[in-house]
Specification:
3 strands; 2 domains; 3-stranded antiparallel beta sheet; alpha+beta; 2 helices; 122 residues
Length: 122
């Protein structure tokens, strides 16, 4: 939630609270009938702030943001050739995409889509 929405909701809560107090106070023995319009206007502005905050669109995020993670591995590490679990076709890095934080393979030969899992080393 962006800061403008938070400010609008807080302002709405304060306006509605004091508007209700003005309306309630107008009916007390020492109250004035002039407080009723002030209370109604305050409550109306408060609900207007809520409406405005709910209609506000979230901030635009940049599409296509790419995150690269470089990992330095100790010792001699060799990359095995990846092959499709379904048809055995060769998989390249172009066929692997990150979806919700997990690597997903889309096989160009058979069209199978699956998550890459790493088997334990022991």
């Amino acid at each position: 939630m962006d800061a403008v929405k938070v400010i609008l909701y807080i302002a709405a809560a304060i306006l509605i609270f004091f508007g209700v107090l003005f309306i309630w106070g107008a009916f007390s023995p020492t109250g004035s009938t002039g407080w009723i319009p002030v209370g109604i206007i305050s409550v109306a502005i408060g609900f207007g702030c809520i409406w405005l905050a709910s209609r506000r669109k979230p901030a635009e995020t940049s599409e296509g943001t790419s995150i690269t993670l470089n990992v330095d591995l100790p010792g001699k590490v060799e990359l095995d050739k990846l092959s499709c679990q379904n048809c055995g076709g060769t998989i390249t890095t172009d066929n692997i995409k990150m979806v919700a934080g997990a690597p997903v393979v889309n096989c160009p030969y058979c069209g199978t889509s699956y998550h890459i899992t790493e088997d334990p080393k022991w």
